[in-house]
């Protein structure tokens, strides 16, 4: 086995372990297209494509995010077949608030100041996300303008230790640091609102670290 293939095999085992850890804690996952040789690979054969264009990973099974599972055996079967990205399905066990990196830093500081350690993941393109309780309200217009996206029913986020075009998704605060407890969506959105007010007071026009142009946000299908 070549060094490259050996490295990919080790990484594939890490992806499988990461997906398994999520389902062990009741967070549903679905395999996603993986980044390789300048493109997203692994679209289901029914799509008629070999690779996907775009910035984000998409579900790599025919049924899409609706096939998300917390079944350990299913996860083992999926990630034994290919080095799929780990996609965390939202809208049932949890939602996700995705924010610009600058906002995520401010929010984490604010939450810690009130004694709350919240799980926090970072994506390499300047976007961070907080897993939160499901069923929360949509972000206000002000927060949406600041780049806040709520992922609820029918959506997903690419999760650690998956690879993107610009690098690896990684934990800034691992869920184990807070016993895998989810913070209330309202509380995390309140921290986002505080960060938005702080940035506005600094005279910023939200031009830093926004989601790349042309990438759909919110609910996906």
The count of DSSP E runs of length 2 or more, i.e. the number of strands, is 13
Portion of residues in helices? Answer: 25-40%
Order of helices and strands: HEEEEHEEHEEHEEEEEH
What is the domain total for the residues? 1
Q: Report the end-to-end length measured between terminal Cα atoms.
A: 38 Å
Major β-sheet strand ordering? 9-6-8-7-13
Question: Main β-sheet, in a few words?
Answer: 5 strands, antiparallel
Q: State the helix count.
A: 5
How confident overall, as mean pLDDT? 87
Rounded to the nearest angstrom, the radius of gyration is: 17 Å
Strand-residue proportion = 15-25%
Structure classification:
alpha+beta
Stretches with pLDDT under 50, minimum 5 residues? 207-221
Tell me, what's the shape? globular
Question: Tags for this entry?
Answer:
221 residues; 5 helices; 3-stranded antiparallel sheet; disordered C terminus; 30% helix; 5-stranded antiparallel sheet; alpha+beta
Write a concise synopsis of the structure shown.
The chain has 221 residues and is α+β, with helices and mostly antiparallel strands. 30% of the residues lie in helices and 22% in strands.
């Amino acid at each position: 086995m070549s060094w490259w293939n050996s490295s990919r095999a080790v990484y594939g085992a890490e992806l499988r372990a990461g997906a398994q850890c999520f389902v062990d804690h009741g967070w549903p996952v679905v395999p996603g297209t993986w980044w390789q040789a300048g493109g997203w690979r692994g679209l289901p054969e029914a799509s008629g494509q070999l690779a996907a264009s775009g910035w984000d990973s998409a579900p790599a099974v025919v049924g899409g995010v609706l096939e998300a599972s917390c079944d350990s055996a299913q996860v083992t079967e999926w990630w034994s077949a290919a080095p799929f990205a780990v996609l965390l399905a939202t809208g049932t066990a949890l939602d996700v608030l995705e924010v610009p990196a600058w906002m995520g830093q401010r929010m984490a500081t604010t939450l810690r100041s009130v004694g709350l350690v919240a799980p926090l993941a970072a994506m390499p393109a300047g976007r961070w996300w907080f897993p939160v309780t499901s069923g929360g309200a949509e972000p206000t217009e002000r927060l949406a303008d600041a780049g806040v996206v709520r992922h609820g029913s029918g959506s997903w986020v690419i999760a650690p230790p998956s690879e993107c075009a610009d690098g690896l998704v990684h934990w800034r605060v691992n869920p184990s640091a807070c016993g895998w407890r989810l913070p209330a969506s309202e509380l995390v959105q309140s921290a986002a609102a505080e960060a938005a007010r702080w940035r506005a007071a600094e005279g910023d026009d939200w031009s830093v670290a926004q989601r790349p142009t042309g990438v759909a946000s919110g609910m996906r299908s």
